[in-house]
Amino acid sequence: MADSRFFENRGPISIADLADVAGATLSDGTDPDLLIEDVAPLDVAGPGQISFLDNRKYVAAFEVSRAAACIVSPALADRAPDGMALLLSETPYRGYARIAHAFYPQTSAQAGIHPAAFVDDSAVLGEGVTVGANAVIGAGARLEAGVVIEPGAVVGRGVTVGTGTVIGVGASVSHCDIGAKCELHPGVRIGTRGFGFDMSAEGHLNVPQLGRVIIGDDVEIGANSTIDRGAGPDTVIGDGCKIDNLVQIGHNVRLGKGCVVIAQAGVAGSATVEDFVILAAQSGVGGHLTVAAGTQLAARSGLMRDSEPGAKLAGNPAIPAKEYFRQMAVLAKVTKDRGR
């Protein structure tokens, strides 16, 4: 059970209602009025709790689980222990996510401006905006309805923030327009100066960075990640992108919609990352490259040239993943043989 100091449980909820939430179907014989009190992992769930099975690796745990109910694909339903109520879904993990949201909906801070906040007189605040203690809202900034600015965050001059967006503790945003329903976690830096210099033995001269950062709707940016403003063209983050903690996005980069960028990955300046690309942890994309739609770049890989649509790449420099793993297998065999 989640710690009640930090999370408010809205249960119990009937299993019929949970099925509706998850878009799942109740198994035959399930009592629709069965009350579920909470969510829990398979191995610790007990009476009154619901879990999920989304990976065949955990079938053994599913078979002995004491959970009152479980979200599971129809193909694995016959492995359930006796007495367990089932919610049948082809996407159990997504169903679980929706159910967890039902039990633990995100709570909003009470709307209003904290006495210790500073809001410039020329800033425009929509209905129900929240501004936390020691937060700063600069001149000409515009916050649409329901925006939450958490304590210590700074919204720079002229910035616009879309409806329902949350800007986390200590974050700073400048030179940017941010869409609706975004979540920026603590310490995020948006709109900082791009890393651009004319390099010379006479000294490295800063090149003015005169662009913006344009962030679409439903974007999440993890703690302490940074997105630089463009040098002239804008840096663009498409709708629905999910960016993990400690990610660096350089100036003039364009991310398409639905991209996923995982911890400590970096995208160098002027790269184009098309729709639904996945950049795994600590991977890197060189500057001025195009990462084609649907590309998946494995952890700690480095992309040095444009990719093909849907490519699965690994290694440094990155090559097709199947080829990379064949090379690793050959190398392992050679070194083993030499050891003999």
What does this structure look like?
The chain is α/β, with parallel strands linked by helices. It folds into two domains: 13-103, MurE/MurF, N-terminal domain (Udp-n-acetylmuramoylalanyl-d-glutamate--2,6- Diaminopimelate Ligase, Chain: A, domain 1, 3-Layer(aba) Sandwich), CATH 3.40.1390; 171-322, UDP N-Acetylglucosamine Acyltransferase, domain 1 (3 Solenoid), CATH 2.160.10.10. It has four helices and 40 strands. It has a twelve-stranded mixed beta sheet with strand order 8-11-14-17-20-25-28-31-34-37-39-40, covered by helices on one side. A hairpin with a 4-residue loop joins strand 39 and strand 40. Helix 1 crosses helix 3 (92-103). The radius of gyration is 24 Å and the shape is flat.
Count helical runs: 4
What fraction strand?
25-35%
Spatial strand order of the main sheet: 8-11-14-17-20-25-28-31-34-37-39-40
CATH level-two architecture of the largest domain: 3 Solenoid
What's the mean pLDDT score? 95
| CATH T-level fold name of the largest domain | UDP N-Acetylglucosamine Acyltransferase, domain 1
Q: What's the shape? A: flat
Q: Specify the oligomeric state.
A: single chain
Cα-to-Cα separation, first versus last residue: 53 Å
In the predicted model, the low-confidence regions spanning at least 5 consecutive residues are none
Number of domains: 2
* Structural Rg: 24 Å
**Helix share bin:** 10-25%
Largest sheet: 12 strands, mixed
Going by CATH, what is the homologous superfamily of the largest domain? Hexapeptide repeat proteins
